[in-house]
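B., you asked whether I could sanity-check this one before it goes into the benchmark set. Here's the sequence:
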Amino acid sequence: MKYSEIGLSNTQNMFISALKNSYAIPAFNFYNMETLTAILSAAKKTHSPVILAVSESAIEYMDCDILMGMITGAKLDGKNFALHLDHGHSFESCKHAIDLGFSSVMIDGSGLPFDKNIALTQQVIEYAKKFNVSTEAELGTLSGIEDEYTGSDAHSYTNPDDVVKFVNATNCDSLAIAIGTSHGAYKRKSQNEELRFDILSEIAKLLPELPLVLHGASNIPQNLVKIINENGGDMGDALGIPVDQVRRCVQMNICKVNVDSDARLGFTAGIREYLNENPTVFDPRKYLTAARNKIIETYVFEIENIMNSANKAI
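And here's what the prediction gave me:
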């Protein structure tokens, strides 16, 4: 299936505009109809381009035919939406996504030795270019757990000198870097911890035209954590990346910001709050609507106040 025939674009023009105008394209993960339509609603409300991100586990959960059926049924405009494989861990998973009709893939070889990461990335790029699909790679390792396929106890910052060698060897379209973000809902022990802006600044200086990507950048809105905790949940002291720090990254060549945990929190908060306030309700459409609305509210805020991508749709 050709992605252009189902209203999708690769990320090339998106990143050119984002780099030139100092904003980031939000990459929001989805895993069912409610999370997908929440992203689309937030994008419509804010007139923002959006990358629809899907992990390997989400593809398995939704089923390929249902996933692509939802994308086709959404009738996207062909300019402002990319369908992206998030954290593909093998050539086969990236090839599978490209063959399905994805317009962008990430090959995550960050856990491999440097030379093997280059070789794997080159293999994916060679195949992706046949279909004009964008390829994102990763250098450095983020700690934390995203799902059963993506997670690590270790954290290694990206070496700017390695970035130059890696990009020259692979010619990847964008690069995810590790500057102190992490996967999951427990990213910080305190809001005083700062990202490694020195590393980001050096990479941007060495390769000013390279679109950079920030993974593990969920804000972990404290209002959602509070709602969950007050309605039977236990999120403890979950803390994310402060708004001002992500906004600063966006001014420093970060063209794509990945957010997943915030949707999970919004979804959970909406359901817990609704069922607690409406104990007799057993119609899933009602509490799923509440869950979707919480995500829309969260993403509209982040598009307008973090990504700076509102009104940037073509």
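One thing to flag: The longest strand covers residues 81-88. Otherwise nothing jumped out at me.
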